Amino acid sequence: MPSESEAEITPPRRPLSLRYLFIAVVALFVLPILIWLVWGWIESARLDRALDALEARHEPLDVAQFDLKPTTPEQREASHLYAQAGKLVDDQPITMQHAAALSKSIETVCSPDVESSVRIGQSRMLLEFEESYKPVFDLLERASQLDAMGWDDGDQPARQSMQQMRPITLARANVVRIARLACTGDGDGAAHALLASLRLRRVWIGDQIGPIGLQTAHSLQSLLTLTTPSPAILEQIQHEYTAGADEATFPRWIARQRAAWLSYALPGAFSDPLPEFAERKMTPLDAVTTRAVRPLRDHRLVQELNEFDDAIAIAKQPWPEKLDATAEFATAHPRGASQSIRRGLLDTLSRPLGAHMASSALAGYIGVMTETLARNRASATAIALARYRRDHAEACPGSLQQLVPQYLAAPLPDPYSGAELKHRCDATGFTVYSVGANRKDDGGRWEQHSDLQVSRRGNPPDIGIAVQRRSTRKTG
After folding, report:
1. What pTM was estimated for this model as a whole?
2. pLDDT digits (tens, 9 = 90+) for 90-107
């Protein structure tokens, strides 16, 4: 124990120097900035490595790389003709009420139980519609007969515009012409009109529409049921349906969605900036905020790029495994209630289109892609079966394998099951179908409407083509 004299000479504690207090205050402000700078450097480096890896694999990151371009004078002429036809239909839109009236007329003309006078009257109504679209159909026919590959630069519809919907409008208008010709017995005329619609896929893909199939089931059924087109034109139609059943279409579409997403997330980095970005004026506050959230943005960009890699790998899986893999992926990466651009500044800057865009692209298109593939394969197989029956006195093949290779180059399996498409055949006709989205055989059952009718209630039990010969009418 210290003595009283020792206690008296112990020096008092000095108060904390202001210098140390200043250092502590400076560190309190500087340390977060240093952490932010290091975090930003790390995330920027991760993003650069991710993008470099994609470029090293020669992955297309510019949306324009997915647009086929004409390379010959004939292809450029076809592009110009399609563009002219598209501009004409802009002035003649088909309203829902008009489509409903036309659909009713088509069903009347194609029905075997309608009086001749009624059928003639409804056929005249369809013919009047055709006359109003005659310049459009003339251009469509001329373009159909040419080799075509995408849009020429001057004909390219503006990105993210309704101009990209023109091929759909052209196809819908052509439904009326196909139906009238088929249901009045003009086989070759209807077949050429159907071929013109199917060949629209050569300028079909855009930002607004995916690689979905045209509504042609009723047109094809009417063609095969009520007419006997020439073998040569049937082979051409079958070729178009087979080309529309390309396995590589889906993964390429997901890769295109990645490029479209990058054009928003990193405007101008790979794709030409959209007009909304080119015209946007950034305020000083926007610039500061953008810089502040950049580490978070880069972090989320890498997450999305990794998810897109997984989504593309799933899209490359065989059918039907990719259906199950897509469902698991969507569960692991929920898309949320909305995928529209968010209004909050922080989310808009760090996630321009929302979270899990790869999941949105994959799950959003897998349904329509599978149905399109199934319908195209059923249609191609139905035509091959019709050609077989014509050459064998309307006899039925023992199995669809008998169509290969003379009538079908290779078997076209059902994407929903991975197995052979279902078929039924007898003396009165035949049915070729896929088991559909419920992935069970419902006996070839579905509701068939005019191809103008785009709305429906739920998914059809099965998907296919049913041909029941009712009468022999004249060919084209």
Report:
1. 0.84
2. 877 788 888 888 888 888
